[in-house]
Amino acid sequence: MKYYCVLWIPTVFHKKPLRKPDVTIIKNVNISDIDNIPHNISVDLDQDENIIIKSDSPDSHSILLKRIDYSNNGLFLYEYDIEDKKENRALIGDDFPFAIYHIVKEFYHTHEHHGEDEDTHLAAYTNKIRPDIKALNNEALIHYLRNYEKKFVAYLSQIQNAYAGLLSRKKESNKRYKLATDSHEAFSDFCCKVRGEELYYNSLNKSKYNTLCKSGLGNDSEEESQLSKIAFNIENALANIKYIEEKAHNEFGFDNAKISFNIAWLAFYIGAGLGLISIALGAIPFFK
């Protein structure tokens, strides 16, 4: 039976879309969900960047995912055949395994703006009918935008809870306030990671193929209404995250700002002092 999958490789909208993969590397992973019963497979790319998946079972069966199209927003379209054999369905099945999708991304993607575990939160798109990844508002593109709606809404919930925890700890003793200040640094780091994730999301959101998943559009149909809601939920989550981050900075960031200010002045004085010493020693031919 023939299947199609669209794997999105996170890319930054304003940069060269993807790096050239190293096809000499073979990556290995255990895709078993059962402890102490591993199911090890290897994943590699051939010269045409097709994906080859091999199992470590005695019969050494394998599946070829042939790349048949791609777009500059990071969507890669593959086709593959799965025979009605138990071992083949264990490799792919009706749902594309997260572990294999994650490995494929590793060939192209360096996690420049987010942590390695962030990619595992995205589910691959599969279908028995070939999708057109260069069609306006194609189903694969919308699938990943829906994934991001879930991610950003979840981020907002985490940040709201973290901020509430910071405020609660601040109300306690001075010792606990120091703990809250330390926690604020971790809080700021998490907010920064969310903004990094937004960079990848923009390659989908601002793609020329996305014309309907925009907030504020007229709802001429049920589909447009649903897509508009996705965009609104994402924008609303990001706006709330930014607002909470600014509140946290105002509440806890004064000491950090003061330290940064003092360090800047210290660097100025050190630089000025070194400059005077260099002039005095003749290292810099300042007067001629």
UniProtKB/TrEMBL annotation:
Source organism, top-level taxon: Bacteria
UniProt keyword annotations, A-Z: Membrane, Transmembrane, Transmembrane helix
Transmembrane segments: 263-287
Protein's name in the database: CorA-like Mg2+ transporter protein
